[in-house]
């Protein structure tokens, strides 16, 4: 029975199948919201109100010709999309969605899983850089360097921000942190600055406007993905969607009290809370222009990092006071 | 990282038409910029010499999709001067109205493109949605959305009736209500302003030295506008208007100048429609043009547009020379790009509102020793076949 449960966990929920279906749904929601903000319709033709459009795009890309540039480092070029997709899929397994209790520890829930999930979410950035490097294209190289530069800008504020709720809850385990805030819902309000920083840095991690600097189409064509086509590009696009789901799930688990109530209510909470995060991300994308890389770095270190540090100080003092 | 050459074009997502830039780049900084034209040369000037004047009118309209009416106006004005005919006042007013409506649609289009270049697609969608209003007006007045075919020698080809005037006024009123919102966004949205303020600086003395034209020059504080300097089609004496200038000299100033020019154009359109003189819209023009030469100019959306026409007494021109405003703005653009960031290339380039097919020309470099080869079609074709065969491609 346990083995069956593990297989279900890996392959169905919250594993491969769920992440694939839900990430395409989230992409559709994002596209629809973005379109609504811009007074457009968005996808309309595939499925009801275009709900199948992301899947259609995925299938179409999978069927397209797969070109590897002559000058490219072929092994690296081919391996990078799989590596990156694997890392975000693994990160998805660490979300505390289903059979977690405070006491039960498993391979997907343990002390320190918050650090592991943060690092697994960072791996795609390195993969993008390697992809740009292996492509042997000027635009891809610039895109790859920009990915790393951007990483230096947002990574520290993001880690500081996700540290605050963990410090407050006194645990390094996502399930325990979520359980703490379910027990003390008012304590969620303490982390409000960290929540803002986490949302902004998540947007940067997902490389969406205003932080889509690494693949700004008017500047560097497709950035690190310039030379990618066919199913490798499809993998990169799918991984970006899954990264959005996992990132939104991480924020929901840390800052919104997680997904209580077992399988069905937990599932509903997961959908509702991640969609709230996606709504904020879409709105941010709609109302801003792309920053320049130097502006992003100074914004990050002048505002985001100090704000996250301030939050940490607040949390430490409040924790002392509350005890 | 040492310097390397970053090619932008002939094919690049930031370019809507083919041209080729070579940027010497040091990391994210542009050290030097160079431009190569000639990828979209269509031989329109030569084509004009082989067609009659009335055919040329429609050929020259197709120099550009955005400023089609201006090229038609300039050519018609020049030929009218050669013929010695004067269009009636109503015709001139409608000619002027078309020019201003075209300016409105072009500036709205440009605002959206500027937003898109810095990744602000929402701005793009909003301005292009409202651009549909003026496109509908143009379609109602002329029957077409792009090449209006309104101008002819001696006046314009279509008249406006009462119902059309009312509809145009309604559309203008709707646009007039919306435009301040775009001016507000363009001048105050923090991320947008961060990207365009202080970018692509062009000081006044450089603008004069490099001979910038149109909104680019006016955004550097240079009060240059053909509508005022060399009034045509009813401007000056009959139709009052203000010239918008800004001291900023950066992309932000160009956004502000264009947004304010929109408001000016609305006022001009309203004035024309409310004071439209009665009478004919055109006079009859002769088929043949007396010998002579003329330089005709008008203020296009992008700046001063010049046509030089030389006639030889027949029904075909001897020489037609087109100088579109983009060509005048290239030296200033290269100046603006140097020392900037790679990320600013698209927006600085877009800030002059370039139109490449208007401006493209061929340069033939002759060898002073007289060794240059003249290739006919067959040799050229053979060279092409050999070129690919040498690289192992079977033809």
Which residue ranges of chain B are poorly predicted, with pLDDT under 50 across at least 5 consecutive positions?
A: none
Q: Return the domain count of chain A.
A: 1
Number of strands of chain A: 0
The CATH superfamily of the largest domain in chain B bears the name: Cytochrome-c3 Hydrogenase, chain B
- Helix share bin of chain B: 40-55%
Give the helices and strands of chain A as they follow along the chain.
HHHHHHHHHHHH
Strand content of chain A: under 5%
CATH architecture of the largest domain in chain B: Orthogonal Bundle
Distance from N terminus to C terminus of chain B (CA atoms, Å) equals 42 Å
At CATH level 3, the topology of the largest domain in chain B is Cytochrome-c3 Hydrogenase, chain B
Describe what this molecule looks like in 3D:
The complex is a heterodimer of chains A (323) and B (395). Chain A has 323 residues and is mostly helical. Chain A is built from twelve helices and no strands. Chain A has helices at 2-11, 16-37, 53-63, 74-93, 113-134, 138-169, 174-183, 192-205, 217-220, 230-255, 263-286, 293-322. In chain A, helix 2 (16-37) runs parallel beside helix 11 and helix 4 (74-93) runs antiparallel to helix 5. Chain B has 395 residues and is of the alpha+beta class. Chain B folds into two domains: 4-39 and 329-390, Enolase-like, domain 1; 44-326, Orthogonal Bundle (Cytochrome-c3 Hydrogenase, chain B). In chain B, strand 7 and strand 8 form a beta hairpin. Classes of the chains: A mainly alpha (323), B alpha+beta (395). The A-B interface holds A 37-40, 138, 142, 209-210, 212-213, 216-221, 286-295 and B 4, 6-7, 12-14, 28, 115-123, 125-126, 129, 189, 191-192, 194-195, 341-346.
């Amino acid at each position: 029975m346990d083995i069956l449960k593990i297989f279900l966990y890996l392959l169905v929920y919250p594993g491969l199948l769920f992440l694939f279906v839900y990430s395409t749904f989230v992409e559709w929601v994002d596209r629809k919201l973005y379109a609504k903000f811009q007074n457009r319709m968005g996808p309309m033709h595939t499925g009801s109100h275009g709900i199948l459009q992301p899947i259609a795009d995925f299938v179409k890309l999978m069927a397209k010709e797969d070109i590897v540039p002559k000058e490219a480092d072929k092994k690296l070029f081919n391996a990078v999309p799989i590596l990156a997709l694997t890392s975000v899929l693994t990160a998805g397994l660490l979300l505390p969605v289903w059979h977690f209790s405070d006491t039960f520890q498993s391979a997907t829930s343990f002390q320190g899983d918050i650090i592991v999930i943060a690092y697994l979410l960072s791996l795609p950035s390195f993969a993008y850089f390697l992809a740009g490097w292996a492509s042997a294209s000027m635009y891809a190289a610039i895109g790859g360097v920009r990915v790393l530069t951007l990483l230096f800008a947002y990574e520290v504020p993001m880690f500081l921000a996700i540290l605050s709720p963990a410090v407050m809850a006194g645990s390094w385990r996502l399930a325990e942190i979520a359980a703490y805030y379910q027990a003390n819902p008012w304590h969620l309000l303490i982390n409000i600055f960290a929540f803002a920083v986490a949302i902004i840095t998540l947007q940067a991690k997902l490389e969406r406007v205003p932080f889509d600097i690494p693949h700004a189409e008017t500047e560097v064509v497709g950035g690190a993905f310039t030379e990618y086509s066919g199913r490798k590009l499809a993998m990169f696009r799918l991984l970006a969607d899954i990264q959005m789901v996992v990132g939104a799930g991480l924020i929901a688990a840390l800052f919104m009290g997680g997904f209580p109530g077992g399988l069905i209510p937990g599932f509903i909470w997961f959908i509702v809370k991640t969609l709230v995060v996606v709504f904020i991300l879409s709105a941010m994308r709609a109302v801003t222009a792309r920053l320049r890389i130097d502006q992003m770095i100074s914004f990050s270190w002048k505002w985001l990092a100090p704000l996250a540090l301030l939050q940490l100080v607040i949390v430490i003092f409040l924790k002392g006071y509350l005890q | 990282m040492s310097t390397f050459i970053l090619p932008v074009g002939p094919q690049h997502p930031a370019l809507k038409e083919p041209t080729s830039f070579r940027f010497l780049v040091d990391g994210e900084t542009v050290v030097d910029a160079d431009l190569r034209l000639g990828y979209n040369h269509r031989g329109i000037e030569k084509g004009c010499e082989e067609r009659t004047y009335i055919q040329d009118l429609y050929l020259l309209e197709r120099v550009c999709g955005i400023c089609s009416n201006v090229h038609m106006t300039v050519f018609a004005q020049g030929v009218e001067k050669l013929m010695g005919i004067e269009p009636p006042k109503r015709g001139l007013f409608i000619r002027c109205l078309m020019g201003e409506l075209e300016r409105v649609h072009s500036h709205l289009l440009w605002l959206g493109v500027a937003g898109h270049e810095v990744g602000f697609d929402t701005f793009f969608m909003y301005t292009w949605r409202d651009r549909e209003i003026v496109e509908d007006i143009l379609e109602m007045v002329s029957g077409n959305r792009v090449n209006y075919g309104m101008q002819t020698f001696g006046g314009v080809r279509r008249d406006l009736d009462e119902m059309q005037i009312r509809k145009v006024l309604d559309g203008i009123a709707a646009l007039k209500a919306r435009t301040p919102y775009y001016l507000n966004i363009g001048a105050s949205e923090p991320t947008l302003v961060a990207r365009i303020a202080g970018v692509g600086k062009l000081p006044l003395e450089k603008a004069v030295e490099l001979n910038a034209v149109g909104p680019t020059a006016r955004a550097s504080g240079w009060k240059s506008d053909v509508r005022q300097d060399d009034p045509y089609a009813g401007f000056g004496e009959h139709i009052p208007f203000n010239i918008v200038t800004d001291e900023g000299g950066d992309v932000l100033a160009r956004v502000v100048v264009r947004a304010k020019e929109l408001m000016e154009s609305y006022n001009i359109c309203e004035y024309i429609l409310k004071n439209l003189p009665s009478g004919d819209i055109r006079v009859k023009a002769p088929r043949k043009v007396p010998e002579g030469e003329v330089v005709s100019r008008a203020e296009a959306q992008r700046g001063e547009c010049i046509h030089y026409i030389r006639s030889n007494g027949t029904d075909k021109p001897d020489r037609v020379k087109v100088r579109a405003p983009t060509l005048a703005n290239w030296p200033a653009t290269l100046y603006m790009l140097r020392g900037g960031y790679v990320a600013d290339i698209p927006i600085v380039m877009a800030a002059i509102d370039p139109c490449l097919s208007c401006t493209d020309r061929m340069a033939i470099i002759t060898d002073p020793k007289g060794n240059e080869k003249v290739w006919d079609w067959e040799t050229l074709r053979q060279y092409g076949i050999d070129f690919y065969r040498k690289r192992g491609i079977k033809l």
